[in-house]
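Work through this:
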Amino acid sequence: MASSYIRKIFFTTLGLNSSVLLNLNTPNFAQAISQSPSLSTTTNLSSSTPQLQPKNSNLEWFYSVAERVIRANGLDDHPWRFQITDEYHINAYADELNKIVIYKGLLDQIHGDDAALAFIISHELAHHTQRHSGQQEEAETSLQERLLKEAEAEYNNWIAQERRKSKTPILPATKDVIKQRIIIQKKQEFDRTMQALSRQHEFQADEIGYTYMIKAGYEINGGLRVLNLLSRLPSDYTEISSHPPTQQRINALKQVMNKYLWFALWMDGYERLKNNPQPLKLDLSEDGVSLRINSRFVSR
């Protein structure tokens, strides 16, 4: 569930073949969704039993969960886009502005588990609502400028010290070695700092995502099931990973679950859903490759 500071990864366009979406009869699809039974707000949140509610398609399933999470948390004042890719990877990420991309491999691995899907969607929504991408870009720019100035200062100080030691001209090859050494050190500092920020964002997205999921009325252990799934992946963690070790995320999420009273969260979301009972409208996004869950202000 990526929120990588490497923008070319964070903003990669992946996705559902545009011909599939363009051939989708969106009005009929939206009508079929609106006629399907809504999720019950009386779910037993204290139960550890997954609430299995298979949908007719991944698109319908994703929409039914996503729009409920959006409404229950008051995030429906602007549209959201979602895209399901045909690639069988176990991942999802926040992409561009107000867009969520999820791989069909991840949907397959959690098939029918509404609470697990709600946690994934809520986690990615949190990346957006907390401006994690923007914060990372701003941090990148600021850090690069600071480290460049530091590198130049360190290099000039070294030159000055060498000249005080000896009147012999410094060899160009020696200068190049020192430059490369300083650059490598600054690059390592940059990577460590950005990695720490990215991991901090993942913990925050897990915490806020958990509250979003509970407010929407989903069973409390959905997030743990998702993270336990990810912990079994061979590529779960490396030293250069932008995500923290999954076991750390599991431990942190358990603390989050003890921190919040689920009933208070659920009641907050229940009131929003009760006051805004109409499902959000759905149509094809202008980008031609994603579906758009419209804001509550759309009348057509």
